[in-house]
Structure formats: structure tokens, C-alpha cells
Amino acid sequence: MSEATLGWLAADYHLPATYSCRLPLSSANSALISPAPGPATVRLALIRASLELFGRDVVRDSLFPWIRAARVLIRPPERVAISGQVLRAYKADEDKGRVAIGESVVYREVAHAEGVMTVYLEISLEEGNTWETLLRNIGYWGQASSFATCLEVSECAPETNECAQPLQGSRGACAAPALLFVHPLRVSRLARRLAGGRAPRRNTSEDGAQSPQIGGVCLAPSGCNAGR
Questions:
Q1: Hey, what CATH class is 6-158 in?
Q2: Range(s) for CATH 3.30.70.2660 in the chain?
């Protein structure tokens, strides 16, 4: 990947219907979801769009190194409602030339958003038109039924305090996953998931507020008092 002038592109997406971005390592038959796609989902969507538009050779030689190395930040929609759905699933099994249709019941969460979701991508501004084309051609996130429409692509740096942040491994580090920016009432539920069902410890900040904490990691969107 050659040296180039880097800058931020911001792509705003409208999510007109329910969508489902499954959390990593969750079962397909009992899927928990994130209220917004993560960086890995964004990279996969960019790869898919670039393959459809430019072909394998261009993606392999020119675009993939940038997609792999680019910084990706996501600002979730203003509000997200998450509900659990019980679905009827079908699976075709072929045995000795005969196809049998199996049926089972699966559980999956779905989300519905109010407000736009913004994807920030740090890329070479010299190829801005190419990246704008890719971002505008992403039509869904996660499942193919999770429709999305790109409203606008512009040069705009992200406000990091508005974007989802990854959990950090070091003790005392404070990070806020996407869920915390969207629905603070679900913090304790997220903390239990991350702790494998165990109730999270509480961390008291200087103003007396308490925040869930798992393994030394504070799950609050503001700063943590790691010394307590």
C-alpha cells in the first residue's frame, strides 16, 4: 500500500426496515445482535461491493490492502429498538437423490432504528470517488433482508465520543460498545452477556455514579475511576 494523503469519508445510511447483525460467536439458531454493524461487517460489505463493481483482480491488487488497513468507525442511529423473534426455519437435506425439507424453530433478535447510521472510513483522498461509489452501493448490513440506503457521502472527520469503541484488554481502560450509545437501559444485559451470565462488578466514578465493570473494563460511555 503506497503512501497517500489520508482523510475521512462519512457515509450516512437510512435503515428503513428491521435488520439483524449477529454478534460474533453467537449461535445462528439463537442469535443475539448488535444495534449497528461493526468494523468487520463494514469491511466485508466493502469487499462484496468492490467485487461486484470492479472484479477480483482489481480488488486483490488495489482495493483489498486499503480495505484491510483502513480505520473504520461507526456512529449508531439515535435510537434502536431490539426485540426477540421466534422464526420457522427450513433446511433441505439430499439423501439418495431425494430432497427432504426439515423444519425447526429458531430464535433471533431484530432491530429497528430511528435516525441515520454513519460509517466513517479513513482512506486515500486521491481515490475518494472510488470509495464513495463503494459506500453508495452497499444495500444491506448483515442479513440480505437488512436493507439500507446510502443518503450521502461527504468528507467529514468523526466525533469519536459519538462512535462505538472496542472493549480494551488493559485494566482500567474505559470503552463503550455500540449498544451503550443507543440504549443505556440495556447496559446490564450486555454486561451479563460479556461476563458469560455472571453479574458484573460495579465501578464508582468521582461523581458517585456506578457503571458495570467486567475484568477491569468499565462499560460506561464516560471516564472511569480505575483506582477504586
A1: alpha beta
A2: 6-158
